[in-house]
Design brief:
Order of helices and strands of chain B: EEEEEHEEEHEEH
CATH superfamily of the largest domain in chain A: Histidine kinase-like ATPase, C-terminal domain
Oligomer: heterodimer
Number of domains of chain B: 1
CATH topology of the largest domain in chain A: Heat Shock Protein 90
Radius of gyration of chain B: 15 Å
Structural class of chain B: mainly beta
Strand content of chain A: 25-35%
Helix content of chain A: 25-40%
Radius of gyration of chain A: 31 Å
Number of helices of chain A: 25
Number of strands of chain B: 10
Helix content of chain B: under 10%
Largest sheet of chain A: 6 strands, mixed
CATH architecture of the largest domain in chain A: 2-Layer Sandwich
Chain lengths: 754, 158
């Protein structure tokens, strides 16, 4: 290799490094410029942005990127004037500086592609900034806007054209006399004060590690865990006490190592959140609205891959809130609200998941308009539309192709709607819920798994092979005799609680033949009873017929190669405890392969209709249990997280209360059978007992019941007169008098009182 | 100018094939294979290679030789009767692949110029997967292209 080659190589690596760093700097600038708009005299931020721009300018000059340097210089000059207090920070200035950041980004993209900062148009921007710096009152916002003109189409969705209203009169700027403030550069440490969380300290204490390197470490640790499991089960270890001790230590270290390595993949969600204030600002300005964004829980950590995956859906939701949700200032005033709309964004951990909540205080979803629009777009039949409850109508906005916008604006409503948001979130194993209150705004809740690398699954068997079904797709498990499966013109069905559940034979859809026998599947007149795993994905619910149901497990997801992924039925593979490989089923893919239709749009309101309820009344899903010999209790299903069966001997008493160990935690137990049960004799002290694990509001408990009857959907007519504390009242469920438990009350009151 | 190249040779039925040694990550005995439903027949399934999940490719079938036979309980363990007993793990453009061969041969150091173009009469699969022929004293060795041999096109899917 010649010397010039070596120099070129070195230069290229310097440029690559520069690009990465410069992009980070620009991201910070975006946040800071928006923050400055809220607090224009935050000296620390001003100094910080000045320094960042100055550094950027210096490096560009050194690398010979003249255009980049010129833009950075113009911005720096403007900031210098602000520092001198010769100017005040106006929205115009903010727009100009943010436009400069966009142009700088476009230049970086160009450098990355061509190695040069070639032909990006910067003259208009420079003139604009120079005129602002000169303090002359004619901010010449370039008509096409520099930013929009140069940002390559790929980046277009984020770079909304900045519409600038020439607002702040120049006199106002000039009228503010420069206060005698020492211009000496403040010590860098000032900005690292405790009240200034945006400090760059985290960056100083971290190093860059290649992601591939981390993945290898994770794989190795996964291997170590398997080896550990094998050694712990080895007979020689079981027999030798000293060896057992060493192995125990090895085991603990392995667990800690695994947790530690998994943590390296975690990233604070702030990396996504921090980009949003800019999006909100630009959009609000363009729509002529005033919007404040409140962010909570930036430090909430989740897997790196997930952070990437939620970026687009989240941005989309935010844009929707600003564009559709929050009203114009005059409408808000008319509705008795403050001019400024509030968009709040929260992230937190709950029950092993990450919850991201987006709430606005806007008009909420115009249920009637959604209804009309859905009818007009042919998504639902008019007769159904009238019968649908408001909540069901809100769900309609997740249907593909739905948009309430009459005219497509350049901001949102481009037909890529909420269905894409839901699909994207579901693809990564999450779910989306929407809650809207007319006139008060709406809240969108995204539940995300902590990591994509490890997911809970149910292991099932079909044709002698084991498959994993992701827990997020599971709805319910049913064991049925072959005689209960009915056929309608070749389509297999199961009658389940007044509905017809389409069935898909896993063995058949995967083209497997039963082990040993040469007979084709489907011909099962005297077949043994099989299990139905009810799954849902993409709004389709169906039953998967499997031979047996094994167990739930947390598994490490291993990617498949392109060929196997293209089969469309498998989401990945995993290695089971015994070292065997098992395939993870891709439920949406299976549904597609088996030709399971999405429910007809006209059927969207079916669940409500099928329960025979009057229009507008949503049936409640209830778990019916027995308590004592004669009493029946119902637990609202949305509070139920699992059904367990445990040995009575495993129930322990602590501080006068009953509890059991459950998934490495202590689960308080409430003996509802004993409390609400009528006619129950003395409690047995051994044998098995059913435990309904309920959780709500971050608390969990296990309800000890005498038996589990069924899950029903019924429209409740609650008689709450004289209701016993802990119940919502009494209702007729399946023709029998049933007490409906008030789970939140029980969890807050009863867990506290023995 | 001589361009040295090391090749690993393998036996497949009555044929000998070779792969560039530098592209081979490791050679292991065939572990348990988990079949992948709907996959092309040349993909026998997935194996657990020390924590990595790797597709097992039936090189015999790829080359139109009698395919590997799996034992009836679908726990194929390579032995003399069922054909392939050895996995050659190679890095391809589509990740790792494990090529099943009957037996491992030698590593030969040769000058690349000794590899001759494929004879015009060679047709079908061997032609599609090979780069050339290496004439050794005792036999003719088909020199395979790692990516073409290791990546099964999806058009072959069932």
């Amino acid at each position: 290799m010649s010397t010039t080659d070596a120099m070129n190589d070195e230069m290229q690596s310097i440029v690559r490094e520069f690009l990465v760093e410069a992009r980070e700097m620009l991201d910070r600038l975006d946040q800071d410029f928006v923050a400055l708009e809220v607090q224009p005299d935050d000296r620390a931020v001003l100094d910080h942005v000045f320094r960042v721009l100055h550094t950027l300018k210096g490096t560009c000059g050194f690398l010979g990127f003249g255009r980049l340097e010129a833009v950075a210089h113009a911005g720096e000059h403007l900031l210098d004037r602000l520092r001198e207090r010769a100017l005040v920070y106006t929205p115009d200035i903010a727009s100009a500086l943010l436009a400069a950041v966009d142009v700088l980004r476009a230049l970086l993209t160009q450098i990355e592609a061509t190695g040069q900062d070639g032909n990006v148009e910067i003259a208009a921007l420079k003139t604009w900034i120079t005129s602002l710096a000169a303090g002359d009152g004619q901010p010449r916002a370039p008509t096409g806007t520099a930013a929009a003109a140069v940002v390559p189409p790929v980046a277009a969705p984020v770079a909304a054209p900045v519409v600038v209203k020439p607002s702040a009169p120049p006199e106002a700027a000039a009228a503010i006399a420069p206060r005698p403030v020492s211009n000496a550069a403040e010590p860098a440490d000032l900005r690292d004060g405790p009240e200034s969380p945006r400090s760059g300290r985290a960056a100083d204490e971290s190093i860059r590690v290649d992601v591939g390197h981390l993945e290898r470490l994770i794989n190795l640790v996964g291997e170590l865990v398997l080896a550990r499991n094998q050694i712990l089960q080895h007979p020689a270890v079981q027999a030798d006490g000293a060896l057992q001790q060493i192995c125990q230590r090895l085991s603990n270290l392995t667990t800690e190592l695994q947790e530690g390595v998994m943590k390296t993949r975690m990233q604070p969600i702030g990396t996504v959140f921090n980009k949003l204030p800019r999006v909100v600002r630009d959009l609000a300005l363009a729509c002529g609205k005033q919007v404040r964004i409140d962010i909570e829980g930036r430090e909430t950590e989740l897997d790196r891959t997930l952070v990437d995956a939620i970026k687009d859906p989240l941005t989309h939701v935010i844009r929707n809130c600003v564009d559709h949700g929050i009203e114009a200032p005059e409408d808000r005033r008319a509705a008795g609200k403050a001019d400024e709309g509030v968009l709040s964004l929260r992230a937190f951990h709950e029950a092993g998941q990450v919850i991201v909540e987006v709430a606005d205080d806007g008009a909420g979803i115009a249920v009637d308009r959604v209804r009309q629009k859905a009818v007009r777009q042919g998504l639902i039949a008019p007769t159904h539309a009238e019968r649908m409850s408001d909540r069901e109508v809100c769900e309609l906005i997740f249907l593909p192709g739905f948009s309430t916008r009459d005219a497509v604006t350049n901001l949102s409503g481009r037909g890529v709607g909420m269905d894409v948001v839901r699909t994207n979130i579901e693809r990564i194993g999450g779910s989306v819920d929407l809650d809207s209150r007319a006139g008060h705004g709406m809240t969108l809740r995204m539940k995300l798994p902590l990591t994509l690398a490890i997911i809970p699954v149910l292991i099932v068997g079909a044709a002698g092979q084991r498959f994993a079904i992701p827990q997020v797709n599971l709805v319910e498990l049913v064991s049925v005799g072959a005689d209960r499966i009915e056929t309608l013109h070749g389509a297999r069905l199961l009658r389940l609680r007044e509905t017809l559940l389409p069935l898909v034979d896993l063995q058949e859809v995967l083209g497997l033949s039963a082990p040993g026998t040469g007979k084709s599947p489907g011909d099962d007149a005297d077949a043994p009873p099989r299990s139905v795993v009810i799954v849902s994905a993409d709004g389709r619910t169906f039953g998967l017929l499997v031979d047996d149901i094994d167990d739930t497990q947390e598994i490490v997801v291993k990617p498949l190669n392109k060929l196997l992924k293209s089969l469309g039925c498998f989401a990945g593979a995993t290695i089971l405890g015994d070292g065997d490989v098992a395939l993870i089923l891709d439920v949406p893919g299976l549904a597609h392969r088996a030709h399971v239709q999405r429910p007809d749009a006209s059927e969207a309101g079916r669940p409500g209709a099928s329960a025979g309820g009057p229009p507008g009344v949503t049936p409640a899903s209830l778990l019916v249990v027995t308590a004592g010999a004669r009493s029946r209790l119902a637990v609202p299903l949305d509070c139920v997280s699992r059904l367990e069966e445990t040995d009575r001997a495993a129930i322990e008493r602590s501080a006068g209360r009953e509890a059991m160990r459950y998934r490495d935690r202590v689960l308080p137990l409430l003996d509802v059978g004993g409390r609400f049960g009528a006619g129950s004799g003395p409690r047995a002290t051994d044998g098995q007992v059913d435990v309904v694990v309920v959780s709500t509001g971050g608390r969990s408990a296990g309800l000890l019941v005498d038996g589990i009857v069924d899950i029903v959907e019924e429209v409740l007519d609650l008689q709450s007169d004289g209701a016993v504390p802990g119940t919502l009242g009494t209702a007729i469920v399946q023709g029998r008098v049933t007490d409906v438990l008030d789970v939140p009350w029980l969890l807050t009151h009863w867990t506290a009182v023995p | 100018m001589a361009r040295p190249l090391s090749l690993c040779t393998f036996r497949l039925a009555d044929q000998v094939v070779a792969l560039p040694a530098l592209r081979i990550q490791e050679v292991v005995r065939v572990p348990r294979i988990t079949p992948v439903p709907l996959a092309p027949p040349a993909v026998l399934g997935l194996i657990n290679l020390r924590g990595q999940v790797v597709a097992a490719v039936d090189l015999r079938r790829r080359l139109d030789l009698p395919p590997v036979e799996l034992s009836p309980d679908r726990e194929p363990r390579g032995d003399a009767e069922t054909g392939a007993g050895i996995c050659v793990v190679v890095e391809t453009v589509d990740g790792l692949a494990s090529l099943l061969v009957d037996d491992i041969g030698d590593v030969v150091e040769i000058d690349e110029a000794r590899i001759l173009p494929l004879p015009a009469t060679l047709r079908g699969a061997p032609r599609a997967l090979a780069n050339g022929v290496l004439p050794l004293d005792a036999t003719l060795v088909l020199v395979l292209d790692v990516d073409r041999a290791g990546v099964v096109p999806s058009s072959e899917a069932a």
